[in-house]
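Researcher: Go.
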Amino acid sequence: MIKALTISLALAFPAGAFELALPVACDLGKTCYIQQYADHDPSAEADDFTCGSLSYDGHDGTDFALPTRAAMAAGVDVLAASAGTVLGTRDGVADFAAFPAGQDCGNGVLIDHGDGWQTQYCHMKQGSVRVSSGQAVAEGQVLGQIGQSGNAAFPHLHLSVRHNADKIDPFAPQTPLGSPRIGCGATGSELWRDALPYQPGGMLAVGISPAVPDYAAIKAGLASPDLPATAPALVVWGFMFGLQAGDAVLFRLTGPAGDVLTERSVIEKPQAQAFRAVGRKLKAAIWPEGRYQGAVILQRRGVELGRQSIEISVGE
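Model: Structure:
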């Protein structure tokens, strides 16, 4: 019975019938990343199209995220993923603020592409929407910018795709969201014109500071300026996403006199985003003056998911 139901719900879209281009003007995996995918588990649990953990219950789209609010402030354009006609827009919802009831999407754009296809773009920056209802848009046309309006915990574009009344995951469109899934992983029928890499977790930022930093400051885009030789401590921190219990975070800090620290931390519970920090207190009158290099590596079952490094000057 389950097998027959699964087959009856399968969708068959001819190759090239509808394709999507990347809807954000950033370098995926470098200056932006996918924080959450659509939820394919019809129960109260959640998993993404690979049967992985980058989703949450009921999530119906793809979240193209920026690593910090500083990146959002600099401005990253949201692009039409396919040509179509604008059905509706909303602007004027404040970023980083409580949102009015029924405005979870925040500032956004809804586009009709014909043949039952629609795309919706949510959480755009207040005041950035550049199109209006009834306007024809070309693929790649700027719609606005990535923001954090509506029900958004971090700066990102939430892209949702619909075909008629069905919510569709462009990474695995063979079954509507909420239906019994067919296998794990991409099947070659994804809607993206150019394949988008799946990154199960990784590094967002790294820094060196004189104390354990505030998490809000890291998410805002904390800089790592040069430090005086009398800094009370040297702390290496890493900001990460897609964490699972058992993931290992490796820290290393070296300076003119060699290794300052080498430590390993283990993640205890799943977290969409988190930071970890380790450091050494100043025990002499001053730190050896010169260049200091910090590095943070995220590993899962011995496989490296990402690494970032930074270099600052101390006392020079």
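Model: Residues 1-9 have pLDDT under 50 and may be disordered.
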